[in-house]
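Input record (one chain):
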Amino acid sequence: MTHLTHVPHLIRNLWTVPLVAGLSIIISFTASGLAGSQLWGDVFMVTAAVVAGAPILRSAVHGLIARVIGIDLLVSIAAIGALFIGELWEAAAVTFLFAIGHALENATLNKTRSALAELIAVAPEIAIVLRHGEQVSVPPAEVVVGETVLVKNGSKIPVDGVVIAGSGAVDEASITGESIPAEKALGDPVYAGTISNGGFLQVEATGVGADTTLARIIHRVEEAQDAKAKTQAFMDRFSTWYTPAIIVLALVAFLATGNVTLALTLLVIGCPGALVISVPVAIVAGIGRGARDGILIKGGEFLETSATITAVALDKTGTLTEGRPYLTDVVVIDPSLDESEVLHWAAQAETGSEHPLSRPIVEAALGDGRAALGLPEHTEPVPGKGVVALVRGHRVAVGNLSLLRVEGVTKGTELAAAAADDLATRGRTPMIVALDGQVIGIVAVADRIRQDAREMVGRLHKAGVSKVVMLTGDTHLVAEAVASEVGVDEVRAGLLPEDKLEAVRELQSQGHVVAMVGDGVNDAPALAVSDIGIAMGAAGTGVAIETADIALMKDDLLKLPQAISLARRTVSVMRINIAVALITVASLLAGVILGGVTMTLGMLVHEASVLIVILNAMRLLRPSRLSPSTQPVASPTSRAREPEARPVNVA
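The corresponding structure, as predicted from the sequence alone:
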């Protein structure tokens, strides 16, 4: 009895119908040729036509109920007509070949969706949490946010979270597409579905179930692979009119010639099967390839638009630079003080500031070996100028020349202004320090240009992008220096968020298809108006995964040209597929009119064109030759005044 349990699965198998039909055709030829029994030969030939044709007819009926005239209807009419006029072999061959083509299409779509299947497969099934001091195994969905999850060597991480104890290496390929394991220590983020390759981690859960990065990726890929590109939508509309037109053409041919075989042959060779599958199979394969590489594309429409990108607009801070400023210089103006004292007074004032540039000053002072910094008695931020603080009864101001004017500071300002200008021309952000109405020195901070920024710009040009534009709030002098360092084509400096929006619109008015790469906060207006909005390093940002047109899961600049290259490859495959389909149909129609193309030959050539289209799309599943380097890039540190860094203004 156990072998019977496999029968339902066999019936559901994609290849069962063509297999049974094929065996029936073989038996038919054997019975009529070797055994000399034409009756049994005809019986098995009709059996083959019925077995292969029943699913096609059922699909055609469902389509008619939904008021859709599709390919199945053309094949059904042709097969039934062939049976009625006694062309049993033609009926069996047409339905058999069509069944093979249908099985190939479904098998290929399943293959191209394999990236989604792989994502689902990496989802962990168990989580070990600490509850009341004991280790408890629970399904990942039952973990409560804030609980401590234990991750041992070789196990899958079941939740999104932050490492609160331990260290180890984690394979994050399922999320970021990066093959090199990432080292994790206290405070580092980890993601559900990634795998511990060594060490022992205690993780505080911050996202569980549907709120994990992995769940968001799966949801995005599901939606994206089902979303239609503009070309696909056009092909669907085309098929809506094309299929009825073929039926009318066949009817006219019959009325004009009285040749039923000719009319039925026209129905068969006119099937737009390769045309219908040409676009969706490429879209699914392209989006699946991207998901494997840590590139999430919102859908076919965005994939198609990305292939036409001619201009890329880049935010500077956090995109071309690492986004982690550090102290570069301490200039002493008051000769009665030393560098350490100037830095300490500046840090005392900045301790109460929320400005992002306060952190590197405070960190540098803490590492300078002096006494611990205390909070100032009073802190007064001055927007656009700096900060003023009361420290142990002394008034300390840290900021630009405008702040000194507001404070009425005059002593030492000329010398400070000259030194600040010199620092600015070298890419630093200078902050003048005044103590009790007198300038005592200057502290300067800078950000590092990413090591792969220049290579990224070069790869964008190779991928077909004609203009790479940097949008920044920096001064023109500093912005130009950065531009020459990374090789961008155009610089627009001194911009506010609304100015960046206008810059994108201006590029569009020049005829460019614009992709904007930014952080999604300060650059939100520009991202919204661009043709394609790209979020980088989206693995830790659920909003970016859901809202960006393209989300690059890893904070890797080289993923950007890789995404554009993938889009261009996908659209190229789509165009080749459409050309193959149209040439095949045109050639077959000419062959029928001129004579020599039979119903069986027509279906054979038609299915061959379907196979060519499928194989062409499968090429997208191979990794792109334009792929980012797998060499790790050195991460920034908080040490002050590192000589090897290439600083840029971070204002």
